[in-house]
Amino acid sequence: MTTLKMFVNGQAMSGGSLNHALRDARLLGPARTAPAYRFYSVRDEFPGLHPVTEGGAAIRGEVYEVGYEVLREKLLPEEPAELELGVITLEDGSGSFSMRMRAQALTAPGVTDITKHGGWHAYLSTR
């Protein structure tokens, strides 16, 4: 089976409402992005990463080893329209697939910059 690395930073993380989609994937462990992203809450329902050239931060999440079938049939169908699949850089310099905010979604109502919290769980703990 062909696999890829998938960084998740919201509801697909352990204990989240979408983690069931990764039941057939292998958790590689906690990870952080390179400090090259802004992090947003969309209506306090889910987060999204967006790459920036300045003012970015490292965002906490988890990395999974995911088969193409799991990605195609279980995880991607659960993702909201504001996100798209892309490649990000992790803190160790390696690449990983991840869901990222679509540029046009950044200005939508209900989108809040939560970068200062460094992760979804930290942000939710302030709500």
Notes on the protein architecture:
This is Allophanate hydrolase C-terminal domain-containing protein. InterPro entries: AH_C (IPR053844), GGCT-like (IPR013024), GGCT-like_sf (IPR036568). Pfam families: AH_C. Residues 5-124 form the Allophanate hydrolase C-terminal domain. The protein is mainly beta. It has a single domain, classed as Hypothetical upf0131 protein ytfp (Roll). 10% of the residues lie in helices and 39% in strands. The protein contains 2 helices and 8 strands; from the N terminus they run E-E-E-E-E-H-E-E-E-H. It has a 5-stranded mixed sheet. It has a 3-stranded antiparallel sheet with strand order 4-3-8, with no helix packed on it. The mean pLDDT is 97.
Notable characteristics:
127 residues; 5-stranded mixed beta sheet; 10% helix; mainly beta; single chain; Hypothetical upf0131 protein ytfp; 3-stranded antiparallel beta sheet; 8 strands; 2 helices
